[in-house]
């Protein structure tokens, strides 16, 4: 049953006639790349829009006085008519807005852009959704979309047009536009317009040419009648035994349509340029290139190799040219490399001297470049003692070079004295002291290992005899008056405690080695005979009871 229903529906659709094409316009006007057509017959706004779309257009937009003039030409014989134009309130908007140029209406293109309005004075401003134009006054009036107007105006837009043909005297040409207009008075014709000249048996069509733009063309190649548009020939149209054909000037040839002309170089395989010479071509290259052996390709010329003096310092070859550069420390100024004044950037700690291609740092007297950063300066002394670097304002803060210590016992002059690292046992075997450093060496048969220690040559191979060593940086000892009071009290208490402990030990030793005879004599020499001695008599003393 389902298949039967589908078959009946398909049969009904096949039997239904195709929709009728839109009627031809009663008149047409084409201006540049746009054409307008007028259609008579009472239609509602939606139906008029569908008929315009069926012909490849839309209801007319009237944005300037140019369109107004086109309407005036199209409706000049129907002054009492009203026709739909493409202006309508958006869906869902029930009322227009008189304060806006288009009163809130929009063109069928969906925008409100316009340089022209022609609203009828005193007309309704609310309740109607569509707009018609009066043929006599060319004024706009709001109108119900479901009501009928006397006709409508369509607009057709194209990317280009063909000019009207220039036939010979007495030769008639009829044009038929793609939207159905048949008129011989149009000055420009849209694409796909056919031009018919029955007297010559020629039918042409306006279409885009391969070289660009719109041209009249024939379905078959070759020239048509030379009396109509020069036979379509780009150059000249000539008759040969009653048959027209096109010819091209010297240096050009006919294209495939046998009407257009193109240069002999059009299809030449030249990499860069093609030059015509005596009905033939030759290839040439841009500046900076040379023609290869095949006579077609172009290859780059290494300008830096062929012209060694192109640049002041460095030449870099590029595709078709070259580029000049400078060595570090120079900059390119008017094709010349000039030395950059680096010392303006204050890169040095003390002194900066510009040298070709860069700069050089130097230090003040008593300083030397730092081993870690040659741009920095550190204190330096190559004698056993040197003046310290002190704050010139307070003389409280002084600095010494590495390997030196500040001497506080040298009067008012603050001096830095070399540290004798050899006395402090820095080296395992032999040591040589130097100002600010020292050198470790080994006895014969031994080699220096890890800068300080020595190992037997049997255990070590490839070592060095000595390593110059710089002592660790020395901090300046603090001044006594700069110590905290609590620290001073603690030191004093410690010293006093030490003295008391030493005195106690000394007393104990003396008592141990020298017995107390004085005490015994005193106790034995007591001549108070009446005193009863109750204490125990020390050994060696006479008993007290004997004297009683």
UniProtKB/TrEMBL annotation:
<keyword id="KW-0812">Transmembrane</keyword>
<dbReference type="InterPro" id="IPR051505">
    <property type="entry name" value="C-type_lectin_domain"/>
</dbReference>
<dbReference type="InterPro" id="IPR018097">
    <property type="entry name" value="EGF_Ca-bd_CS"/>
</dbReference>
<dbReference type="GO" id="GO:0005509">
    <property type="term" value="F:calcium ion binding"/>
</dbReference>
<feature type="transmembrane region" description="Helical">
    <location>
        <begin position="487"/>
        <end position="510"/>
    </location>
</feature>
<protein>
    <recommendedName>
        <fullName>Thrombomodulin</fullName>
    </recommendedName>
</protein>
<dbReference type="Pfam" id="PF07645">
    <property type="entry name" value="EGF_CA"/>
</dbReference>
<feature type="domain" description="EGF-like">
    <location>
        <begin position="300"/>
        <end position="338"/>
    </location>
</feature>
<keyword id="KW-0430">Lectin</keyword>
<dbReference type="InterPro" id="IPR001304">
    <property type="entry name" value="C-type_lectin-like"/>
</dbReference>
<keyword id="KW-0675">Receptor</keyword>
<comment type="function">
    <text>Endothelial cell receptor that plays a critical role in regulating several physiological processes including hemostasis, coagulation, fibrinolysis, inflammation, and angiogenesis. Acts as a cofactor for thrombin activation of protein C/PROC on the surface of vascular endothelial cells leading to initiation of the activated protein C anticoagulant pathway. Also accelerates the activation of the plasma carboxypeptidase B2/CPB2, which catalyzes removal of C-terminal basic amino acids from its substrates including kinins or anaphylatoxins leading to fibrinolysis inhibition.</text>
</comment>
<keyword id="KW-1015">Disulfide bond</keyword>
<dbReference type="InterPro" id="IPR016186">
    <property type="entry name" value="C-type_lectin-like/link_sf"/>
</dbReference>
<dbReference type="InterPro" id="IPR000742">
    <property type="entry name" value="EGF"/>
</dbReference>
<keyword id="KW-0597">Phosphoprotein</keyword>
<dbReference type="Pfam" id="PF25444">
    <property type="entry name" value="THBD"/>
</dbReference>
<keyword id="KW-0677">Repeat</keyword>
<keyword id="KW-0325">Glycoprotein</keyword>
<keyword id="KW-0654">Proteoglycan</keyword>
<keyword id="KW-0472">Membrane</keyword>
<dbReference type="InterPro" id="IPR016187">
    <property type="entry name" value="CTDL_fold"/>
</dbReference>
<dbReference type="InterPro" id="IPR049883">
    <property type="entry name" value="NOTCH1_EGF-like"/>
</dbReference>
<feature type="domain" description="C-type lectin">
    <location>
        <begin position="31"/>
        <end position="148"/>
    </location>
</feature>
<dbReference type="InterPro" id="IPR001881">
    <property type="entry name" value="EGF-like_Ca-bd_dom"/>
</dbReference>
<keyword id="KW-0254">Endocytosis</keyword>
<dbReference type="GO" id="GO:0030246">
    <property type="term" value="F:carbohydrate binding"/>
</dbReference>
<keyword id="KW-0732">Signal</keyword>
<dbReference type="InterPro" id="IPR057350">
    <property type="entry name" value="THBD"/>
</dbReference>
<feature type="signal peptide">
    <location>
        <begin position="1"/>
        <end position="17"/>
    </location>
</feature>
<dbReference type="InterPro" id="IPR000152">
    <property type="entry name" value="EGF-type_Asp/Asn_hydroxyl_site"/>
</dbReference>
<dbReference type="GO" id="GO:0006897">
    <property type="term" value="P:endocytosis"/>
</dbReference>
<keyword id="KW-0245">EGF-like domain</keyword>
<dbReference type="GO" id="GO:0004888">
    <property type="term" value="F:transmembrane signaling receptor activity"/>
</dbReference>
<comment type="subunit">
    <text>Interacts with ITGAL, ITGAM and ITGB2. Interacts with thrombin/F2; this interaction switches the specificity of thrombin from a procoagulant to an anticoagulant and antifibrinolytic protease. Interacts with ANGP1 and ANGP2; these interactions significantly inhibit the generation of activated PC and TAFIa/CPB2 by the thrombin/thrombomodulin complex. Interacts with PF4; this interaction enhances generation of activated protein C. Interacts with HMGB1; this interaction inhibits HMGB1 inflammatory activity.</text>
</comment>
<keyword id="KW-1133">Transmembrane helix</keyword>
<dbReference type="GO" id="GO:0016020">
    <property type="term" value="C:membrane"/>
</dbReference>
<dbReference type="Pfam" id="PF09064">
    <property type="entry name" value="EGF_Tme5"/>
</dbReference>
<feature type="domain" description="EGF-like">
    <location>
        <begin position="418"/>
        <end position="455"/>
    </location>
</feature>
<dbReference type="Pfam" id="PF00059">
    <property type="entry name" value="Lectin_C"/>
</dbReference>
<dbReference type="InterPro" id="IPR015149">
    <property type="entry name" value="Tme5_EGF-like"/>
</dbReference>
<dbReference type="InterPro" id="IPR009030">
    <property type="entry name" value="Growth_fac_rcpt_cys_sf"/>
</dbReference>
